[in-house]
């Protein structure tokens, strides 16, 4: 047994309260190195009468480690615990004070979860578990009111550039809400809507007003009201890392320099504030001089932005905020942001834009979740032939072990966005691969998001090519792909097991074909994928004979305890059975 691989700390993703009664424990061991891990648990004030053992489940594995998991229901909301780790005839005991060959006398030196305080339990919005999000750029979705078009607006459907306009607006969104309902969408993520000189609106001038090219505040309120009537939640984009150079306080800094009362609202490194040889004398988003970075530690800036967050929650009954460039804003700000937003709407969904491991934002005091770009990267690499099944399994399992379960249940999963090439382009234009990736999206743990137009075949490279106008002419839409998305959305919405059930790979090896499962107390799903250009037959032991095809309802029978599924190149099949109670 490799003792150096054993790891547990009584905090973060390793020991946390899942709900007011349940504590989740995780332990790491070297891969395929131990047979059993047993959690030895009890109350430190009455160890003998409260003692009980739990055999932990091997929840996931990556290239180097196995991860073991258990749910514990302590009798008195306190938990003292140790781990007995068994490999063959060898046993060791992992406690807070170290690793021992003999069991240390309880409970001195054991791990502790001192008490489950309900106020400290990391709670995420339940509705987000059931959500199917649709991300749209209002400027490129639909032009419902030509009277508010910017000067020089180009004909709909032209080639997107960094600085051109096509006239999309909120009336266009309102006109097409029934199309989204037909698709099965029940949540919309809008990129920024507020006053801004650009087509993307990530350089905001006025945070309290809808950009006049989109409409006005009253129209946004109407859009949200109609969305709610149709069962659609609404999430807006909060750009609190930076603003536009046209933002009035920054204009004051440009005019008055060190005498400006707003000079501490920004990170001015040298006065006058200007761009010299292509580099600004103040901190910016990236190196864009037209996007000066806020000093969010400044109390006036903080209050200004927190008031904005609260204003829109209350004014339009907003359901959530997506936080732009969230990792570049200080943690103190985001803690106060969560307090303000959750007070205004306890069910608000807070999604940070962070492209890497985000655990430090996801322990209950800042975000509910993040945009899961690592998910998108691994899924794209697998379905474009960049890794085998075993590597994919290791990668996805590792992602699940990054965060507490409540975050995994609502992690914002996407396959592309306004910042990446389009999905069909990422898979080389092969619609079979696109469908495989979408099946995985809708049958994986977390909250799925579709980028507008993927469902009708819009292609495109990186920004700005990925920001093409939505295709509304049915003759130009990929209706087969639309029906496919609609079918998968409906399947997910009809089965809680595909939204909240456990996830586990059943087959993943050097062959780029995989089998995995989702299951809860009512239904058991298995998903079979042939990620090759040759016809394949996948096999897996299955004793029960009550399996059906989830899309056709056709009976599917194993042979002598083994299920054999024949799949076309880049084909898939979804089976399910109802669990007897």
TrEMBL record:
A Pfam cross-reference name: Malt_amylase_C
UniProt GO molecular function: hydrolase activity, hydrolyzing O-glycosyl compounds
This protein's record includes keyword Protease: no
Database matches in InterPro entries: GH (IPR017853), GH13_cat_dom (IPR006047), Glyco_hydro_13_lg-like_dom (IPR004185), Glyco_hydro_b (IPR013780), Ig-like_fold (IPR013783), Malt_amylase-like_C (IPR032091), O16G_dom_2 (IPR045857)
Coiled coil regions in record: none
Domain spans labelled Glycosyl hydrolase family 13 catalytic: 135-492
Keyword terms, alphabetized: Glycosidase, Hydrolase
Biological process terms in GO annotation: carbohydrate metabolic process
Family statement drawn from the similarity comment of this UniProt entry: Belongs to the glycosyl hydrolase 13 family.
Name listed for the protein in its UniProt record: Alpha-glycosidase
Organism: Paenibacillus mangrovi
